[in-house]
């Protein structure tokens, strides 16, 4: 009973407390706004940012890069994961390559992507997609392979074709896994788009953060970071919400709904 | 030791003119890393059309192995299985026509959690290309047959174990198979539910006229359901005795307290104990 409402009260309280400590620290120790502006100043700067039309076009660019990159990663990740999950020898053959690509820091590829795709949003879309792709693909493979042996027996006894087994069992079994991969993927896609903007180009919130810093407007930079956080949260929870619609049958969904 | 003189236990099999299932010299070896296990050997048996055959035996004697061989889930390492005259395997290829005649129920219901109860029951028909309206109508009809009407739209996790097993039986029946294969289908249920399920299974079997092969650990369940009980002896699994259960149908729960029922039970119990 208490647990049900505790988080609704405790979480905002904690946030308020942190903001108060921040304000107190900045005031008591008279911290320079070039190092750490107070929460009030950041809030005002955010409101100023939101009153300027160009902010919205920057937000739009970042959202576009993140969402398109993410969707590409979802489609390609599920297709690759599906194929590799079904064809064991192919997965075994490609596994060293996949692991290699996975551990490679993708951010190091940004200069290359800029050479290939230019300073515009395309290079960021590609980076977001490449980073978000791996958790989605590996989770798809895991989901397909983790079909219970009892379920496999049922399909075997029903003389189902490989395609039927994939469509009605393996893919369905993989959905909760894919969604977990997507939750990780959307966070990575957001990071990919922003880091891409930091390092090259003249558009997006990542670029804005760098531009405000270069102008020694640290308070506005904090405002940009605040906006980025809100954006990241919205995108993340949009994906989390998807779970309810995609796998209404799943235990995790049912228990989340009941509590 | 004279109590079961009247019970006919035959170690020999008789060939039937037109069997539903014919097993000839079926043998199964499992190859493990360090040694081979002979799980089943010398199984030669004809199972008649419409017969209710129960496989009984101690744990590890190869009951599941034999059932999986009949179900086409396992290709035996020796011998042959014929379903209604058609070999189940030709070289390493399963025969689709033979497979079409089979419905299988496992110890676990094995319902797919992402399908509603009616979708689960209709799945075999979906795989055979039956249209949606038709197959869902059949699923609703089967829900009534197995006594879970009203639960068509529920998810499997919302049903009790007994109800899930009923749904699994409905799924196996959906294609109107000539043969129903069941591996300890009620093993996970409590005694009361189990009695009820036995009665229902008898009714369904009498209504559909299909051939049933059922695996169980329970002597009581075996005697209650079977036309014939095939007792398997362990290490390696082989046919021990066939017992004809000549009790009138439909059998009721009360028949279990009759002397003739208890005679069969005792005879099988003594035979089983002799393996230990
Ligand atoms: N996949 C396998 N690999 C190796 N050995 C196996 C395999 N499956 C079964 N066996 C062996 O074959 C023998 C028969 O097993 P089976 O599962 O058919 O017995 P069972 O009669 O169904 O037992 P229970 O009543 O406990 O279910 C056992 O000794 C078992 O260890
Ligand atoms: Mg078994």
UniProtKB/TrEMBL annotation, chain A:
Pfam families listed in its UniProt record: BPD_transp_1 (PF00528)
UniProt keyword Transcription regulation, yes or no: no
Main location per the UniProt record: membrane
PROSITE patterns: ABC_TM1
CDD domains: TM_PBP2
Domain ABC transmembrane type-1 residue range list: 59-243
Membrane topology: Multi-pass membrane protein
Cell compartment(s), UniProt: Cell membrane
Keywords: Cell membrane, Membrane, Transmembrane, Transmembrane helix, Transport
SUPFAM superfamilies linked to this entry: MetI-like (SSF161098)
Transmembrane segments: 12-36, 56-85, 97-119, 125-144, 177-200, 220-242
InterPro entries found in the cross-reference section: MetI-like, MetI-like_sf
Keyword Cell membrane set for record: yes
Family listed: Belongs to the binding-protein-dependent transport system permease family.
PANTHER family the record matches: ABC TRANSPORTER PERMEASE PROTEIN HI_0355-RELATED, ALKANE SULFONATE ABC TRANSPORTER-RELATED, MEMBRANE SUBUNIT
Protein name in the entry: ABC transporter permease
Automatic annotation (TrEMBL), chain B:
UniProt KW keywords: ATP-binding, Nucleotide-binding, Transport
Molecular function as annotated in GO: ATP binding
SMART domains: AAA (SM00382)
Domain of life: Bacteria
Keyword ATP-binding included in the entry's annotation: yes
ABC transporter domain sequence ranges: 21-259
Family: Belongs to the ABC transporter superfamily.
PANTHER family to which the protein is assigned, alphabetical: ALIPHATIC SULFONATES IMPORT ATP-BINDING PROTEIN SSUB, TAURINE IMPORT ATP-BINDING PROTEIN-RELATED
Protein name: ABC transporter ATP-binding protein
Native source organism of the sequence: Arenibacterium halophilum
């Amino acid at each position: 009973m208490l647990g049900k409402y505790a988080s609704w009260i405790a979480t905002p309280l904690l946030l308020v407390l942190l903001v108060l400590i921040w304000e107190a620290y900045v005031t008591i120790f008279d911290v320079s706004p070039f190092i750490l502006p107070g929460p009030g100043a950041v809030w005002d700067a955010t409101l100023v940012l939101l009153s300027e039309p160009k902010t919205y076009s920057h937000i739009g660019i970042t959202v576009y890069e993140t969402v398109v990159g993410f969707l590409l990663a979802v489609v390609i990740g599920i297709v690759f994961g599906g194929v590799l999950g079904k064809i064991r020898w192919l997965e075994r053959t490609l596994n060293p390559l996949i692991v290699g690509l996975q551990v490679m820091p993708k951010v190091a590829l940004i200069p290359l992507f800029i050479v290939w795709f230019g300073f515009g949003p395309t290079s960021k879309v590609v980076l977001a997609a490449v980073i978000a792709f791996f958790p989605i693909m590996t989770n798809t493979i895991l989901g397909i392979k983790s079909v219970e042996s009892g379920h496999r027996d049922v399909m075997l006894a029903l003389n189902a074709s490989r395609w039927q087994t994939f469509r009605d069992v393996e893919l369905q079994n993989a959905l909760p896994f894919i969604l977990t991969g997507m939750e990780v993927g959307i966070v990575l896609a957001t990071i990919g788009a922003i880091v891409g903007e930091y390092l090259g180009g003249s558009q997006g919130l990542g670029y804005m953060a760098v531009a405000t810093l270069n102008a020694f407007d640290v308070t506005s930079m904090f405002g940009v970071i605040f906006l980025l956080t809100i954006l990241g949260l919205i995108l993340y929870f949009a994906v989390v919400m998807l779970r309810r619609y995609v796998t209404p049958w799943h235990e995790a969904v049912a228990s989340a709904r009941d509590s | 030791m004279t109590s079961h003189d009247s019970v006919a236990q035959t170690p020999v099999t008789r060939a039937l003119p037109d069997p539903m299932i014919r097993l000839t010299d079926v043998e199964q070896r499992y190859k493990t890393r360090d040694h081979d296990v002979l799980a089943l050997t010398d199984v030669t048996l004809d199972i008649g059309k419409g017969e209710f055959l129960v496989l009984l035996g101690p744990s590890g004697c190869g009951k599941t192995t034999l059932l999986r061989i009949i179900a086409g889930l396992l290709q035996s390492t020796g011998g042959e299985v014929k379903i209604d005259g058609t070999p189940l395997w030709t070289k390493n290829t399963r025969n689709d026509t033979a497979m079409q005649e089979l419905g299988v129920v496992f110890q676990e219901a094995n319902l797919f959690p992402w399908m509603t109860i009616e979708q689960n029951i209709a799945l075999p028909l979906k795989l055979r290309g039956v249209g949606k309206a038709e197959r869902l109508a059949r699923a609703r009809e089967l829900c009534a047959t197995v006594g879970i009407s009203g639960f068509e739209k529920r998810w499997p996790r919302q049903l009790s174990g007994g109800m899930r097993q009923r749904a699994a039986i409905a799924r196996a029946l959906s294609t109107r198979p000539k043969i129903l294969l069941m591996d300890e289908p009620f093993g996970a249920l409590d005694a009361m539910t189990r009695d009820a399920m036995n009665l229902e299974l008898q009714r369904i079997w009498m209504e559909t006229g299909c051939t049933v092969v059922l695996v169980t650990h329970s002597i009581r369940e075996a005697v209650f359901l079977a036309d014939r009980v095939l007792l398997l002896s362990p290490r390696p699994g082989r046919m021990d005795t066939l017992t004809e259960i000549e009790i009138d149908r439909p059998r009721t729960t009360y028949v279990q307290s009759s002397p003739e029922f208890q005679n069969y039970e005792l005879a099988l119990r003594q035979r089983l104990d002799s393996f230990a």
